[in-house]
Amino acid sequence: MRHRQLAVSGAHAFDPEVFRDERGDFASPYQETAFVAAVGRPLFPVAQVSRNVSRRGVVRGIHYTLTPPGTAKYVYCGGGRALDLVVDLRVGSPTFARWDAVELSADGGGAVYVPPGVGHAFVALEDRTVVHYLLSAEYRVANELRLSVFDEEIGLRLPDVPVILSEPDRAAPTLGEAAADGLLPRYVS
């Protein structure tokens, strides 16, 4: 499995070998040995596995959780293609407000590790894009936070597709507003 550190401190992208033959293909988006070599410890105990199916142009995020408790994510694409985005929201982090993007696809089998305090978003690049999440904590609506994907201070470069957002994502605050309200997590090295 190939691995690379993303521009956001603690976030990593993983690309497994894909085995193809006349039947189709096989890949393992998570391999503990590769994860430990990259991150220095095993993946968190999985508290919840979630998935969503999105139309082309759907943007989900930038989402993060109150930290503490914080939630880590291991994300992969089970169908279609998605541009996966991670944004460092941790005040005091050496990569604060920096972001990085990885294209995930069912064909490629790649995955992204998102540590607690790092925001996550994705853009569905095809209809019926399926994104799976392994989560370190169960979803709690009271812990859910979000930022605007259009925040100029963050400066995400979204693909040129008609954007579809949920009402809460359309109304999400900017990084500056979240900081002023004390809603950004602190960096812990």
UniProtKB/TrEMBL annotation:
<dbReference type="InterPro" id="IPR011051">
    <property type="entry name" value="RmlC_Cupin_sf"/>
</dbReference>
<dbReference type="InterPro" id="IPR014710">
    <property type="entry name" value="RmlC-like_jellyroll"/>
</dbReference>
<dbReference type="Pfam" id="PF00908">
    <property type="entry name" value="dTDP_sugar_isom"/>
</dbReference>
<dbReference type="InterPro" id="IPR000888">
    <property type="entry name" value="RmlC-like"/>
</dbReference>
<protein>
    <submittedName>
        <fullName>dTDP-4-dehydrorhamnose 3,5-epimerase family protein</fullName>
    </submittedName>
</protein>
<comment type="similarity">
    <text>Belongs to the dTDP-4-dehydrorhamnose 3,5-epimerase family.</text>
</comment>
